[in-house]
Amino acid sequence: MAGGDHRTTNRRPATGNPFLPLLLDVGVPLGSYYLLRHFDVSIVTALAVSGLLPAIRVVWSVIRQRSADGLALAVLTLTVVSIPVAFLTGSPKLLLAKDSLGTGVLGVWLAVSVLLGRPAMSDGIRAFLARTEGSAAAWERLAAGSAEFRRCLSAATLVWAVGFVVECLARIAVVVILPVGTAVWAVNIVPAVAITGCVVVQGRWVGRLVRMIRRSQAEHDREPAIRPLSLAA
Question: What is the pTM of this model?
Fold first, then answer.
């Protein structure tokens, strides 16, 4: 995208488990909810406590990195506001719908990032594709100099933007239509389906990114062998 600055300053290979945030934001809250319900904690209280766990992770991330991610703070604010409202109204459906609004905001934010020429999924995709020094260096070269590479990043980000907005609407429908006892686990099927769909659809562009990274690595590796021949000529 013209005028967009896709360069990054992180030339190190991606580290850490890219699936960890999914486990912390989905697996741990769901498990804690059922654990609390097993001990006869009320539905509203169980949802409130399990919803606080991802919020605590956001706070800890802000403190550790000493930087505030706008989306993370928006989700945290939504959590802090919705919990007392849910206790006042006695509505567990409000707490379940809160998570849906968070993913909806995420989808809109991703779409805006593409329009601004800075696709927000770039770091997430990089975590999977640039896990060695060679691939990290290739990523940096392509992000800075290849319009096709940047278009693929934008297209993949748009896939996730649409997916998250659709997921938001579907989760709200589940919360409204189904009883709370069913909705509390059914709402977690929706993001699983949405994420799987996004992974499959984005494959068209991610596959091109992989091929470009490999080609760039191969060309870079050949340069030392070609340069002396060129000098000799």
Answer: 0.66
